[in-house]
Amino acid sequence: MKFDLDVGKVVGDMVQASAGALAKGGSQATQYASHEYAQFIMDIEHVQTMAEQKTITAEVAQALVNQHKLSMQAVFLTVEGLGVIAAQNAVNAALNVLNSALMAALGNAFKALKFTL
Amino acid sequence: MHRIKEARRILIILLLLMMSTTGCGSIRLIASYDQKIDDGVTDLQKATAEFLTGIERQGGSTPADYKDHTKFYDDCKVSLSGLIVRAGALTGNNLTLQQLEILRQQFQDLEASDQKMGIPQAAVPQYEKAFNRTFTAILTLEVAKKEPKHEGAGE
Lengths: 117, 155
Fold this sequence. Notes:
The structure holds 2 protein chains of 2 kinds.
Chain A: H1 7-52, H2 58-113
Helix pairs in contact in A: 1-2
Chain B: H1 2-21, H2 35-57, H3 70-89, H4 94-117, H5 124-144
């Protein structure tokens, strides 16, 4: 069994695939993803080295790469989620401003009505 | 004149009721933070770390050792099944649900490798890193779901 992986191409594809989600997720998503991408590259390179040095068999190396690939899918989902949360927070912040304005207007309306409680 | 005032009064009360029932006008695009998912994933992380550390300490494992590992795999399957059901029951929790399915796949793959070729000592840190990346991804998303504190709120 031969173990071969073009790390550069994999990382390029990863960045391309997640670019949209990263833009939506803001700085938190970018910081998190950058760290995880860097770790992933280091881990894959380490697996490759161990396979070349015969510390592990090609079959074990492939199993490890598959595990790392699965874990990166989980990372992509987090990046996507951070984008959704950023959008949610932005909309809610805007709604908060609108709410305050409405409450102020309602307060004035109450004053004008001179309710007797 | 009295009728107009009465109509305005009703309108104002209706508006206030609408605002209070819609959570003061906030929207939710993703499920809320769930303490049980947080705790469950953290427990799974600890169990996995213990399992892998044990294997590393004994100098790796062979396929013959697999029979001693079945309890660990069964416990993980049961825990994950519970977490997947819980995550699936919450609206807007699709991303977390997919992450838990990925974790389930990782445990299945680890078990298959363990059964077929054992877990070599040199491979243990890499397995641990891959699992921890997934655990961290799930927990990062879960914690990010916590409501942001608005200015002046809850102080």
